[in-house]
Design goal:
By secondary structure, the chain is α/β, with parallel strands linked by helices. The chain is built from 6 helices and 11 strands.
Length: 242
C-alpha cells in the first residue's frame, strides 16, 4: 500500500507585471483570477495546504484566512520581472516545512493567469505524477506551428529552420511531434526543486490539455479570447465553469 504523500498547492501572484498592469488583480466574469485559482485548488482532496505567495498584501487579502491556506509575504527580490519560478517554490517550501514541521513531497502550481483550468486538469495530472514517478508533470497543448518546420531562428545575419540531425526537413512528416507548454498545471517533485534545479528536469512527463482552454493571460487579446471561450461554453461542465 502506497504511503500517503504530502502534496501542497501554490498560488504565486506578484504585484508587478509588464504586459498587463496589475494583472493578478484582474477579474474574469466578476471574479478575481487569484480567487478562481484558489477555488479550484481547494477542490483537490490530495492537497494538505494551499500556499499563497505574493509581495502584495492586497493580493494576499484576496483570499480569506483559512486553515486550508498558508500565506507568505514574498520578498521583492523574488518578485521582479526576471525572477524565475524555482526560487519562489523553494522559498515557499522552506517556510512551509519550518512552520508545519513536515516535509513536502510535491507541489502543484495554480497559475492565476490560466483561469480556464478545471478540476480534472489537476486530478488527471496528479494521476500521471503518481504513476510515472516523474519529477515534473506539465500541461501542454498541440503546437500550432512546429518549430522544426514553420519557424525560423536567427543564425548570424541570416535566418534558418531549427535543424534536426543537421537535416533540413522537406515535409511536416519529417519532423518530431512537439507540444507547447501552458500554465494550466505544473506538478514538481521536491527533488526537482532542491536537487535538479532545472525548470524542465530529466524526468518530465506531459499532460495533454485542449488548445482552446490553454490561454495564459499576457495581453489584452488573451482576455478577449478567454471571454469569447466562456461565452461559447465549449464543453465545460456547469460545475467546472467560473
Amino acid at each position: 500500500m502506497e504511503t500517503t504523500k504530502n502534496f501542497v498547492g501554490i498560488i504565486a501572484a506578484r504585484s508587478g507585471s509588464k504586459g498587463i498592469k496589475n494583472k493578478n488583480v484582474l477579474s474574469i466574469k466578476k471574479k478575481n483570477i487569484v480567487k478562481i485559482a484558489y477555488d479550484i485548488a481547494i477542490q483537490i482532496k490530495e492537497l494538505k495546504k494551499i500556499i499563497i505567495t505574493s509581495d502584495s498584501t492586497k493580493i494576499l487579502n484576496l483570499i480569506p484566512n483559512d486553515k486550508k491556506n498558508f500565506k507568505i509575504k514574498r520578498s521583492k527580490k523574488l518578485s521582479l520581472d526576471n525572477s524565475p519560478m524555482l526560487p519562489v517554490l523553494k522559498d515557499a517550501i522552506i517556510k512551509y516545512e519550518k512552520k508545519y514541521i513536515t516535509k513536502i513531497d510535491a507541489i502543484i502550481i495554480f497559475d492565476p493567469t490560466s483561469p480556464l483550468r478545471i478540476k480534472s486538469d489537476i486530478s488527471g495530472a496528479l494521476e500521471i505524477f503518481k504513476g510515472k514517478k516523474a519529477d515534473l508533470v506539465v500541461s501542454v497543448h498541440p503546437c500550432q506551428h512546429n518549430p522544426y518546420f514553420s519557424m525560423l531562428e536567427k543564425n548570424g545575419k541570416f535566418f534558418n529552420l531549427s535543424k534536426i540531425k543537421n537535416k533540413n526537413p522537406g515535409s511536416r512528416q519529417d519532423v518530431p511531434i512537439v507540444y507547447e507548454i501552458n500554465t494550466l498545471v505544473w506538478i514538481y517533485s521536491r527533488n526537482a526543486i532542491f536537487k535538479e534545479k532545472k525548470r524542465i528536469p530529466k524526468k518530465t512527463v506531459i499532460f495533454l490539455t485542449p488548445y482552446l482552454r490553454s490561454v495564459d493571460i499576457d495581453t489584452k487579446d488573451d482576455i478577449e479570447k478567454i471571454n469569447f471561450y466562456l461565452k461559447k461554453n465549449e464543453k465545460i461542465k456547469t460545475t467546472d465553469r467560473l
